[in-house]
Amino acid sequence: MKIKYFHFLLVGGMLACAPSAKMDTNTTIDDSPQPLLTLGEEKIFADEFIHIYTKSQHFESAEDKNTKDNLDKSLEAFINYKLKVIEAVNLGMEDSDEFDKEFTIFKEDLKKPYILKYSLQEGEIKKAYARTKEVLMASHILLQFPPNANMQDSIAVLKMAEKLKTEAEEGSDFNSLALEYSDDPTVEENKGDLGYFTALTMVQPFEDAAYNLKVGDISDPILTNYGYHIIKLQDRKPNPGEVRVSHILVRTNTGDPVSEERARQKIADIYTELQKPNADWNSVVENYSDDQSNKNTGGKLPWFGVGAIIPDFEKGAFALNEIGEISSPVKTPYGYHIIRLEDIREVPPFEVMEPALRSKILRDSRSSLIQTQVVAMQKSKFGYDENSVILETIKPKVDKALTKSLQSVKDELGEQNLLDTTLITIAEKSQTVRDFIKFIESDQAVVKTKPQQFFQPWFDKFVQTELDKAEEHALLENNEEYKMLVKEYRDGILLFSLMNDLVWQKALLDTAGLEEYFTKNREKYQWKERVPALIVKMNKEEQLSKIRRFLSNKAYTSRLKPTIEDQFLNDYPDLFELEDGIFEHANHSLLQKVNISEKYHELKHEGRSHFLVLGSTIEPSPKKLSETRGKAIQDYQETLEKELIAELRARYPVQVNEEEKERVFEIIKK
Length: 670
Known about the structure:
This protein is α+β, with helices and mostly antiparallel strands. It is about 50% helix and about 15% strand.
């Protein structure tokens, strides 16, 4: 969300200047047909004012609350806000491509908390976080399907998986069964043992099954994209969190016994070297480690948790308990390691982990599953129906778009009078074949089609898009909170556009107008009595006498600052801080404390010693525009805004329904 809209979106850019009442945001009002305001031809109802008013809760004292004066001020500010929005609409700002782009982005963000997809995602994120509090140890047997498997092949694999589960439950050694039957490519090394893992490190069906087991239990066959798994849960325990370690690596050449022996001897010698009292870890890493990526930084590795790194290394790292403790040599497929513990941290709180969990969930298979669930729920909620006869008729024709032009497919459907037939119905609204073809024409770069499949991916996306539209429409119709938020953000963007064009940028770019305004209001821009001054703020008190001797007999000149810098800062770069300029002494925190007729001063301020060398006073005088341009532009903007409001109030006559206003005041008081 862009910061430039922030104060408008809270209170329409207007109500922040008026005090407002704390009130129950759940308060409901009568469904009265009477408008609170009429601005020109536009009718504004009480619920919108109360929504904006409720957001402006800045009372500091109880006596300010719920006063009639407060209501009147806030209502006047609200009127000005709505007049600007009406003017922006009448100027066509709502029809611009820029507005459409901005508003679409805002709406996408606004609707997230209200839609089914977000709700399901939040549930998955919270479930994943709850699971991260534990780590599981499991073994598995994987049975893959043969290439080009048919239904009979799938059934045969499932029956084999069920047979192995029975054997394991009847006492056969699970790891031996894994070694004999598992298709996992690492089974020769680990005998089916997967080590410890936590949430989001395994594919979802596997993870769900494992977390639902008790220690010692064996799962039913679990189908994933890899095949059927039989899982045995070996252990579950609290998550130890994350560790940061550094390491020394001695690489080995796989299958080379000589390389293996040399590496084993080298790592043993390094380990012996590290036992010496004067051993320096960083030096040993730099001299001996084969890990080129970190040997010059002490061998440090990024933070990691359970299941994020190869099991043997992980086991060695999590076995360390004290910061600085080193492991005995650890063998992994990369070679031999000595690991040193650098730091430990617990599982972070949900607020810290939530972005990473969300990112992982949206990238893995859970995202597709969530979308499938969303579509199913939307179809049920909005009475989805499809014309199966027409679907079967047009499918082969639309698939021809892979080899023919879409226009020729459209022409063929038109010749057969199929374009205006109903294809699907959502929330009692029909979408025709023509609507579907238009959707493809307008969105052609988005959907990836497969060989011989043009129709189905496009149809699925068309259905999903129309269901999303139906859900958003239902939100706008039935959810008052969402409806008010959308209106508030829409008005905020329009308000910003109007103010930017007619006030802020105009004041910045209208040089002639600014100079004319400045000339007419020159009396507002006056210098008070000023004094040139060099202010020295000391950082090292022990050098006070040197600075005192140097400054005590000096007169203020523009060359004094570079002179004192040359004299001292070459030898003592942080000895002091300097402030040099012409100041209104009555408004300066230091100068207001001294007698400006005396040209040299020493004083303490906020615990620091200061030296002041002053020049001759300068009498009050008018400011030049260049000396106060920022303040003049700000004042000119305020003037332009007041003129704009006056013009809008003349163009759109304001009528306040006093009876409705009294009713609103009673609601606020309650």
